[in-house]
Write a structure and sequence with these properties.
Protein name: Response regulator
Order of helices and strands: EHEHEHEHEHHHH
Mean pLDDT: 80
Keywords: Phosphoprotein
Organism: Pelomonas nitida
Largest sheet: 5 strands, parallel
Strand content: 5-15%
Strand order of the largest sheet: 2-1-3-4-5
Helix content: 40-55%
Pfam families: Response_reg
Distance between the termini: 20 Å
Amino acid sequence: MSKGKILVVDDDRLVLATLSYGLTQAGFDVIDADNGDDAILLAREHRPQLALLDIRMEGLTGFDVAAYLREFLQTPFMFLSAFTDEATVAKVKELGAVAYLVKPLDISQIVPAVEAAFAHSAATAPATAAPTDAFQAPSELPPLDATALAVGVLMHRYSLARDEALTRLMGLAAADGHSLPEQARRIVDAIELLARPAQR
């Protein structure tokens, strides 16, 4: 019996693997992503009950992902970061994170914080809402900025700066005879296809 579904996002593959393994062993259903663009796509598809986000990442940051989760999916989130400067802490509070964990942390310290966040979100969920009220069909979701998302994907996939990624996207669009938004949409669609769970 799963304790709940959690999205874990960190661009450090070792940290991501450690967190995913530890939370899975603790009984959670874990979805992981190593960049913010994939994180949003996976969140839209799998609807996690909680997200654990690294803050500093190439492309979309943990703050960007958190803002999207809060505004469009109403998914609670917590941050895991090595940064404790005033600006970072202020932004964490502004976004309304349920917790802010400072690296380095052992998984044995993270699991209780995640369990507490799940308990908190369950306790604060509106009791009057029917389960279907909380769920939005994908067709009802706000449209993604496909161009920005595609640029982020190219930045991540090919280790490019944002300007270089945009230039590559424009080149792909020209080569394929598509408009920039159309080419971006094709890339996003391809990523969403790859993110689908395999059919058993």
